[in-house]
Amino acid sequence: MALVTTERMFKQALESDYAVGAFNVNNMEIIQGIVEAAMEEKAPLILQVSAGARKYAKPAYLIKLVEAAIEDTGLDIALHLDHGEDFDICKKCVDDGFTSVMIDGSKHPFEENIRLTKEVVDYAHSKGVSVEAELGKLAGIEDNINVDARNATFTDPEEAAEFVEKTGVDSLAVAIGTSHGAYKFKGEPYLDFDRLKAIHQLIPDTPLVLHGASTVLPEFVAKCNEYGGDIPGAQGVPEDMIKTAARYGVCKVNIDTDLRLAMTAEIRKYLCEHPADFDPRKYLGPARDAIRGMVQHKIKNVLNASGKA
C-alpha cells in the first residue's frame, strides 16, 4: 500500500484492453466514496487534483487525505496533477509528493508544447514521477480550461508520434471528440475512432488518455432536476464508446462531472426531503454513498478494471 506511479498500471491496462479510472477529488467525502469502490472492486486507481481543487481544498489537505485513504484501504493509489498549466506548478506537485503530473501545453504551438513538455519530463523523471501531456484541444469547460468548440482541434496521428518521440512523455491525452463538462454533444454522440486507431498504431506502446469522459448518467441528471436543479439536456459519452476506446490504447479515463452530479443529486434530494436538518453529515453521507455506487459501476461495467489491482 503506497503512493505509486502510473507506469505499472498503464502497462497492465495496455496489455489487457481495460482502462484505469482517474477520478477528480475535492474533499474527504469524494475521496472516501471513490476509494471504497476501488477497494471493493480490487481495481487500480488514480486520484487527480485540478487547479480548482488546489485552490478550493489546498494541496496539503488533499495529499494528507489521499495518504489516509491508502492507510485505511491498503490500496496502491497514483496521485495525479490534472491540467498543470506550466513548469512551475508541475515542479511544485512533484516536490510535494505527487506521483504523476500532467503538463497541458495544448494551447501552445506544436514546437512550444514539445519544449514545455520535455522540460517537465526531464524534471519529473529525475524524481521518479510519471508525466502525461496533451496534444489537440478539447471543447468545453473544466475549472479554468475553456476552449470554444469552434476552436477545438483533434489530435493528428503523425504529430502524436513525433511528439512522443521528442518529449519522452509517459502517456498522451488525445482529442477525438470528447469535451469537458455536462454538455458534451449537441446532437448524436460521436468519437473519431478511426483517428484513435491510427494514433494507437503509430505509438502502440504509449498509453493514451481520454479527458472529458464522464457519461453524465441520466438518473443523476433527472434527480438533480427533480429536486430543484436546472441542467436540462445534459449529455455525456455513451458507456459503449468508453469500452471501445479501451481497445485502442486508452488506458486512463478521466471522470469528474459524473462525481459532481452523483453528489449534488443526493444532497438536493436529502435537503428537499428533510428541510429541518442542518447537520452536514446527514446529507454528505448519502452523497458519499452515491459516489461509491457510481464509481463501482464505472469500474465494473465501463472500465472493465475489476480485480486488476
Automatic annotation (TrEMBL):
Reactions catalysed according to its record: beta-D-fructose 1,6-bisphosphate = D-glyceraldehyde 3-phosphate + dihydroxyacetone phosphate
Cofactor: Zn(2+)
Residues annotated to bind Zn(2+) 2: D104, E134
Protein residues bound to Zn(2+) 1: H83, H180, H211
Active-site residue list: D82
EC number, UniProt record: 4.1.2.13
InterPro entries: Aldolase_TIM, Class_II_FBP_aldolase, FBA_II, Fruc_bis_ald_class-2
Enzymatic class: lyase
UniProt keyword Lyase, yes or no: yes
The keyword Metal-binding belongs to this UniProt entry's keyword annotation: yes
Residues where dihydroxyacetone phosphate binds: G181, G212, A213, S214, N254, I255, D256, T257
Protein name, entry field: Fructose-bisphosphate aldolase
Taxonomic placement: Bacteria, Bacillati, Bacillota, Clostridia, Eubacteriales
